[in-house]
Amino acid sequence: MVKKLLVDVDCGVDDAQAIMMALAVPDVEILGVTCVHGNTCVENVCKNVLRVLKVCGRLEIPVYKGVSKPLLGFVLDAGHFHGEDGLGNAPDPDAPGLDLVQKEGAVSAIIRIINENPGEVSLVATAPLTNLAMAVKLDPTIPQKLKGLYIMGGNVDSRGNTTICGEFNFAADPEAAYIVLNEYLCPTYIASWEFTCHSKLPWEFCDDWLAQDTDKARFMKKIFKHSMDSCYSERIEKELVAGQGFISCDSYAMAAAIDDAFILESDYKAVTVELTGTYSRGMMIVDHLEILNKTHKACIMRKVDLEKFKKLLTNSLK
């Protein structure tokens, strides 16, 4: 069975890792990559996706430009970690041009692709959820036609990485995250920020992973250097949990979409997003007491098969 994926990204380094992971799996078909604001501006996101597809020899996969700013509020970016261009400030003079981006917009493409493949598409969202929120408002029927929705974002212990209580993807567009968690009533899987921190890999694995003698590994080593230097610096200066190992945040959601058996332990809870708190705007709310009276429960990842994860990552650079 071929697994059909639609991928929505704000292509920073970990989005690139997730895309390359999926492209290396023989029975996975990426129907399209939709781009949105986030780690960098949406124009850079489009350029970055094309660079990733080029190094993988897969430029035939359509790329769609999406929304450039959140539904409300200010634009955030993660240039301090991913580099101002999103890929480690490692420019490529031979990068594909934006003329390869499809004329159709990302929101329209999401609606069309899901409607053309009812019950067959898994949507992997590793970015602020603006494109998805816009899509469901234009066509409220698309969630029931999805096979599954895999999200990297949100948090379960109120530990933020962008605001006091907010993870980046949700904090970058809280209203969009709220809409998606409340209106996509399809099987939903969430790789939260704290979960990824608890599922880190040794830096020694990362060193070996990048040492593979391939063009893909050399590309990854070049774009990842800026983020790795940031992690090492944070580990030395602040001893942050994220600095104590290799975390490819977006790849956890992608690995789950590739193979559900990757998830070993999970909680099924109703979730929503706080929109008005002084310190907690953008925080994901997990309804442990079932006060929300929601019938739709998300699968919140707790433990995954890290050996399988290592193999997927290793194969992505072969």
UniProtKB/TrEMBL annotation:
The keyword Disulfide bond does not apply. Gene3D superfamilies: Ribonucleoside hydrolase-like. GO terms for molecular function: hydrolase activity, hydrolyzing N-glycosyl compounds. Keywords: Hydrolase. CDD domains: nuc_hydro_CeIAG. Residues 6-311 form the Inosine/uridine-preferring nucleoside hydrolase domain. Pfam families: IU_nuc_hydro. PANTHER family: SI:CH211-201H21.5, SI:CH211-201H21.5-RELATED. Belongs to the IUNH family. This is Inosine-uridine preferring nucleoside hydrolase-like. It comes from Astyanax mexicanus (Blind cave fish). The gene is si:dkey-4e7.3.
